[in-house]
Design a protein that fits this description.
Number of strands: 0
Number of domains: 1
Largest sheet: none
Radius of gyration: 18 Å
Number of helices: 10
Strand content: under 5%
Shape: globular
């Protein structure tokens, strides 16, 4: 995504430029790592990203963890709690305020088509949809809203969100804590592959436990 942003900036396109807008948001998020308000902002960002904000909290989480690796897990905990609560807010949007808030959010992200695809899968794979979206680059906000719209069991939704969101953020912080700042470039470059691979491993583990133990 950042390559697209840079190309858009170099092209000098006038008027509304979504890539430039996202780049400014990205830089704005990063600057909080250099202030005393990094942790509260991380919590708020994680909350907002689970229901409407476009920039993932991993950006600020990585910057904070790199700056003070000994606090990496504390940052992951703040990020996890904020994201889980934000997911609950997204669920409420879909459950009670879909027309007023859910539709505008989905339209903003051009996610209506994805939303229809999700609807066809929810009857069989509701837990795994939430779990996978919570851990991978799939837009989590679409799933939290969809879970409320399709009246997914709230406790099941909460359980899937808590596991996947915490696993994602603690994985990032754990890598930085163990390897130090040198791992930051690797995470930035291969983040999507890391989380997808880890998700496959987790799901595979659950399947093995279910059928062989």
């Amino acid at each position: 995504m950042m390559k697209n942003v840079e190309q858009a900036e170099k092209s000098g396109t006038r008027g509304w430029n979504p890539f430039r807008f996202v780049r400014k948001l990205y830089d704005w998020v990063l600057h909080w790592a250099e202030t005393p308000y990094g942790v509260p902002v991380l919590f708020i960002l994680a909350f907002a990203e689970s229901s409407f904000f476009p920039v993932p909290p991993d950006v600020l989480l990585i910057a904070l963890a790199v700056s003070i690796p000994t606090r990496a897990f504390r940052y992951a905990l703040a990020c996890s709690i904020g994201s889980i609560l934000g997911g609950m807010f997204g669920y409420v949007i879909g459950w009670q305020f879909y027309e007023q808030l859910g539709v505008p959010i989905l339209n903003f992200y051009h996610a209506q088509e994805k939303f229809q695809d999700v609807q066809r899968l929810y009857e069989r794979y509701d837990f795994w949809i939430v779990f996978t979206a919570g851990f991978t680059p799939i837009p989590y906000k679409v799933i939290t809203i969809a879970s409320g719209v399709f009246d997914m069991n709230f406790m099941k939704f909460l359980f899937a969100s808590a596991i996947s969101r915490s696993a994602r953020f603690f994985l990032v912080s754990g890598l930085i804590w163990y390897f130090g700042p040198m791992i930051k470039g690797f995470i930035d470059k291969y983040f999507n592959l890391l989380v997808i691979g880890f998700t496959i491993a987790l799901i595979g583990g659950f399947i093995l436990i279910k059928y062989f133990f």
